[in-house]
Amino acid sequence: MEFSLKKIATLVDGSIVGDENLRITGVAGIKEAQPGEITFVANSKYSSYIDSTRASAIIVSRDVKNGSKTFVRTDDPYLAFTRVMELWANGNGVALAPAGVHPTAVIGNDVKLGKRVSIQPYVVLEDGVVIGDDVVLSPHVYVGRKSHIGNETNVYPRVTIREKVQIGRRCIIHSGTVIGADGFGFAPVKGVHHKVPQIGSVIIDDDVEIGANVTIDRATIGTTVIGKGTKIDNLVQIAHNVRIGENCIIVSQVGISGSAVVGDGTTIAGQAGVAGHLTVGKNSTVAARAGVTKDVPANSRVSGFPAQPHQEEKRLKANLRKMPDIVRKVRELEKRIREIEGRQ
Questions:
Q1: Per-position b or e across 171-183, b if 16+ CB within 10 A of its CB
Q2: Which of 19, 5, 13, 4 shows the shortest CA–CA distance to 66?
Q3: What CATH homologous superfamily does 100-311 map to?
Q4: Is 240 noted as a catalytic residue in this protein?
Q5: CATH code of domain 3-93
Q6: CA triplet 56, 61, 62: central angle to 5 degrees?
Q7: Where exactly are the structural domains of the chain?
Q8: Which of 32, 176, 302, 324 matches a 20 to 30 Å C-alpha distance to 340?
Q9: Is the whole-model pTM more than 0.70?
Q10: Per annotation, catalytic residue among 102, 148, 174, 240
């Protein structure tokens, strides 16, 4: 499969500098690319590879100067390259799932299946499940009773979706994820932990992607909510009654405790934690391994434990690095004081 460079430039709203008649046969990273392939440079640290790459064409930003290579200049090289990758993914790189219901699938009563669904081997759909058009359920997916999955959603193998869960359109859910498990709720009475029934649900809005081995707990009462367009990395724990806004980024190994609220457009970096019943305001960034122990205002950037404004945390870390010198100087001063006192 190949495409003309002119077609690619049109697709990404780019302008060609060099040979517009090139035929492009594939995509690759700038260090691995071979003749016939197209690559990209979005990070300046890879600019040194422009002259040495074997790629036939390079997608670059509009401010890159002319060189010996053929360029496709765009406003956003990274976004442009992802759109070019889709040409091969849709046409050749990803096998389309065959429509139909595999004979080993277990289908309960009153299940509604949309058009062109792909229900693959050993899928289990409990009573009252609703599956939208063009949905793909890979082998060993379990969908609990009265759960709904929206159009064009792709669920990878061994995902568990418990009862009364609502999943929107065009979502991607990767292997091993569990949506709708019981929240961690117990009432201690005289040293004994009594389980609190978890009778709420989970709502996943449209265009959400959930990584592998993520756990999103059902609400105790009400709903746990993941907003439209949010992307969740692997190995994330989201507790009961959490509400995550739209277009958030939740990176791997993050833990968000019960009833926390995360505002729209917020990024929570790897291994960070948010304590229960707190609010992280919209458009904020929680740095990696930060521990959020109090509300974070909108448009903030916090780091450290306990999390505080990032500039304050940096000053603290810088001062901590000076501690050995400070201790040495204090000891020298103490010694001098003792010497002075001894002469008096």
A1: bbbbbbbbbbebb
A2: 19
A3: Hexapeptide repeat proteins (2.160.10.10)
A4: yes
A5: 3.40.1390.10
A6: 105
A7: 3-93, 100-311, 313-343
A8: 324
A9: yes
A10: 240
